[in-house]
Amino acid sequence: MDIMSYISTATRRNWNKLGYDENKRLRSRANKTCSVKKVIPENYLNSIGELDSLVEELSTSGYRVEDIVYSLCCMKLEKLRKKTSCNVAKFYEEYGGAGYVRIQIGVSDLILVECKGDWIGYIYQSLLPEGYRNLNGVYYTGKDIVHKMMDGLVLDESKTIFDPCCGSGAFLMACDVASLSQIYGVDIDPVAVMIAKTNLISKFSSDKEYPNIVCCDYLLSDAEFRQVKFDYIYTNPPWGTSKVSEYYSDTIYSKERASLFFVKAFSQLSDDGYMCFLLPTSLLKIKIHSDIRFFILSETKIRDMHIYKEKFNGVYTDFFSISVGKSQIGCPQSYSVYQGDDIIHAITANIDDFCSINMNTEYDDQIMNILENRRYDNLSHSKWALGIVTGDNKGKLKKEQEIGTEPVFTGRDISKYKLSQPSNFVHYDRSVFQQCAKDEMYRCGEKLVYKFISRQLCFAYDNTGSLFLNSANILIPDIEGMSVKTVMAFLNSELFSFYYKKKFMDIKILRGNLETLPFPKIALEQDNEISIMVDEVIENVKDRNSDINDYIYNLYGISNEMVKYIKIFLYGAFAE
What we know:
Blueprint: H1 9-18, H2 49-59, H3 65-78, H4 86-95, H5 109-114, H6 119-127, H7 130-136, H8 143-150, E1 161-163, H9 170-174, E2 183-187, H10 190-203, E3 212-215, E4 230-235, H11 257-267, E5 269-280, H12 282-285, H13 290-299, E6 301-307, E7 319-325, E8 334-339, E9 342-347, H14 362-373, E10 383-385, H15 393-396, E11 397-398, E12 406-409, E13 425-426, H16 439-443, E14 447-451, E15 459-462, E16 467-468, E17 472-476, H17 484-492, H18 494-504, H19 511-514, H20 524-538, H21 545-556, H22 560-571
Parallel strand pairs: 1-2, 1-4, 2-3, 4-5, 6-8, 12-16
Antiparallel strand pairs: 5-7, 6-7, 8-9, 10-17, 11-13, 12-13, 14-15, 14-17
Helix pairs in contact: 2-6, 3-6, 3-10, 4-10, 18-22, 20-21
């Protein structure tokens, strides 16, 4: 498997700049897509210790990943009670001469016989570099999430189920069907397809139907299953912007892969069927994804939505599942939103420019309307800048200060209101950086800096002209009647974090979202009072965080009951 054949031209140029060895292993990291780190998918399978020991052994064996997987598939099939199964013979016929090499691997019966679930898929993911998995969306859905999405789904013998990006077959393996003839799948990864076929042959060992799993690019290929309509479509598609120029859609302009999969799969859904997709929450709120929201609201009937607390190992994005059908299409739509065991009954607004899909309760909307009614200004006319991208943190960042270097702060160095001691130093030479803002943005007299990835809004104050890396972004605010420190107080408040999380549902703190936050009109006296409290926090005179939050709650007229509700949302059931 040559990872260089899977990356974009821009990424390849960047990798050439950074340097990689003869085994295509990067000598340094610029971003996650370049990472050679291995991430164990702990939430994918309830593994046993012996399985993890096998992963560790195989990761240093020197064998090709595809040969390891092929050998494991053969070993699993050989353990079938019916070793003469016609499907086993077809498997060897398909893969025996396909360039895979059978190698000897010491796998115990504890794994081969007793380990439940897709243990080969677990090993496969564990052996792949993080960069490859990130570029190709190789994050298979954990069994708990699959179970929640497919709970109660039982197919009679006339129904079919399809997964257009099936990976190693998590959804197809979990469905309750009588025959393999009811199951269809597609994946672009030939190794994943091989694992999926192995899993299905093992589960349906008496079935004479060979697994209908095809290796192709679903978004480009119309050769397989083109005319087939499916009763149920369940999947977790790749997330992120597509780099493939051939992916044309007159519906999806964002080039988001998950959205492209959604629209194409919907075209293959039967009139009385429904499909369920696992998607990043960014698709619900961010402006660029209004294309998929418009499609969902205008072309589908939303059945229900589920928000999950789980995370994929190595991925920080929040996600949800949405189930849609073709009957009773139109707006407004009523549907249920589930968060754990809680049900939120929601009704979408009619289609507008933003096409927001509402997932909030009426009480949430009541609180947010209070802020909207006090809206006077926003951050749309403020100044913004990104932190430095060195292109080679390992080579350019120093842990100790040297002659000619200066502190450079990262997102980890930012807490609410103030910066911690810097953990990195750098020679500030703009010509050697991959990305760098204008000098005046770093060197200005007063600025705010904020974490790009954060569960809550987190802004710090800087008046030292310091440098920041790209995990921290820069804001020079311009809000009428507010000092820089007062603006920071609002941005750090519990109330604004609640508003942001409810409206945008994303741990990425994006400029476009921040620009819409509703700032109220305040008097000069109020601005002074807030600034004084902020100064006391910055100078470690007194912890005034609670006082600042209370002051801002009172400015908007938020009741004690609402305050308690907000705190529980932000901090959990045991929030004081």
